[in-house]
Amino acid sequence: MTHMTATLPETLEKAATVEFRGLRREFGATVALDGLDLTVRPGEFLALLGPSGCGKTTALRMLAGFEHPDSGAVLVDGEDVTQVPAHRRDAGMVFQSYSLFPHLNAVDNVAFGLRMRGTRTAERRSRAAELLELVGLADKGERYPHQLSGGQQQRIALARALALRPRVLLLDEPLSALDAKVRLTLREEIRRLQQELGITTLFVTHDQEEALSVADRVAVMRAGRLEQCAAPAELYGRPATAFVAEFVGTMSRLPGELKDGTVEVLGQRLPADGEVPDGPVDALVRPETLRVAADEQGTACVVATAFLGAVVRVTVRLADGTEAKADLPAHEATGLDAGTAVGVSLPERPVLVAARTQK
Amino acid sequence: MARRLTPWRWVVLGLAALYFLVPLVASVIFTVDAPGQGVTFDAYTKILSTGGFVSSLLLSLELAVATIAVVLLLMVPAVVALRLGAPRLRPVVEVVCSLPLVVPPIAFVAGIVTVLKWGPEHLSRTPLFETFVVIQNQDFPLVLVLAYVVMALPFVYRALDAGLRAIDVRTLVEAARSCGASWPQALLQAVLPNLRGALLNASFLTLALVLGEFTVSHLLGYAPFAVWIYNVGGEQAQMSVAVSVLSLLVTWALLLALAGAGGRTRSASSRG
Fold first, then answer.
1. What is the predicted ipTM?
2. Chain A residue with the nearest C-alpha to that of B191
3. pLDDT block averages, 10 residues each, chain A of length 359
4. In terms of CA atoms, which chain A residue is nearest residue B196?
5. Whether A97 and B269 lie within 8 Å, measured CB to CB
6. CATH number of the domain that B99 lies in?
7. Do residues A186 and A213 touch, judged by C-beta distance below 8 A?
8. What is the second-level CATH architecture of the domain A2-242?
9. Distances (CA, A) of A250 to A118, A208, A240, A244, B133
10. Where in the sequence of chain A do the CATH 2.40.50.140 domains occur?
């Protein structure tokens, strides 16, 4: 464990600021990045989240030096690195696909970067052994990649990425090839390591749960632009745009009527959040906010229920045919079978509104 | 399922073995069975004393080594660049590399002969004249290496392409680059070691091709191993068959040696 305390101050003082400034990149007719501006604070774990094709991987690869922007700049600690070749970027990277060198065993894989730097054999072996211990695979040093499980391979890839004490750690969907259980433990471990080392980290993912659970801040991207960058709780509770609201977590759209900053929805008049002109709008409602109770006179009816453990997700159809989802504690949901007439209401709190999209 | 097929597998194996072994065994019997004298190895002992055996075999081996070196230096960077930089050009390169299979060696060599005749006449006052002289050096005809490189292209391309298909070149290169490796380092230390099987296969095929090549070398007037066998055979039937059997064994031995070398480095590296 001594190596950890030895590594810690060193990496902390090296923690870097990363800045994307007006990054733009086109691949033929598709615009991968359309003027991306984003700043990552020193030592921060920032998740880049978005649907596939939103440009998040392109942005990461630009920081790694594998892609070059058509315009804009990438800055590390205020220094423009846009023209610096990949091998001098000082960025460790873990890839989506298994990227260990198949001809080298675990120790030599981890020590690869040190070998490229001309570190002496004894020194790089001991450093590699330390890193393997850090990722909990000290006993697997002599194994070859094909003798290791996917999760073990990604841990070794992580150790390899950290071997050169990089200023930035780049994670390109490192968990997406793993099965659910391994994914969960490994993401916790990545988070723990990142906090121990205090290294500025960019984590690309399309899995919103993953992003919300590990990151300090989450940057949601859409079509090459930044939609919102905020802490997970804020992103979930106060999404800046309808896109963020619906991409992060589950969101139901309930038709309403906006007038003078209040919205008429489900027969209630509530303060409205969001900049839309008066008129027909959609209120965006999280399933845990929506209240559902059995009611003989209710105009809505239950369409389906799904048991999720602590809660039951109830899908209801409103009088006008709109479907909405509500999460109820398991004991409240008893008796709410498909076809039950129910009453649906909202708590007296501001609701997010967005321009009407359907019907 | 596999078990039910087993008898059929043995039948096929037996037929294939017969097909290959019968001529081979017949050849061996023919060389050792002198009429009226019983078994004798005269035909084999005579080979060594016949002039040209060692020199022609050496020439063939030298040509093979040079051809392997040139064709790999040419093709490895080419196929890797094709993977990383221009995947769309792959069909083009594939077609170009397959052309030597379509052009018969006889047509190929006719073209070479024409160029070799035309060149010195028209270039006699330029430094290129010397080039034409050098490539036709009797001791080491570079022109044959050039010809063999072209003839080996289809095999080498296919072997390397299969090897590259098995690895994710882009990710390996990027992983190496993010570990601080420059481009040449990434290729040499991360990609090439994982192509060893493919490189070995390509070398095998080229070696076998060069050792057995007859048409081009004969028509250009050189005497590597295959041509020497042919020349000897014209004089003594029994000895020519003995030489063929021997050349088969020599080729096998060389291929086994190559395979052994490849296998040894693999087990050595896996130990530590």
1. 0.81
2. A101
3. 43 76 90 92 93 91 93 92 90 91 93 90 91 91 92 93 92 90 91 92 92 93 92 89 87 88 87 84 89 85 88 90 89 83 88 77
4. A103
5. no
6. 1.10.3720.10
7. no
8. 3-Layer(aba) Sandwich (3.40)
9. 51, 10, 15, 10, 79
10. 254-355
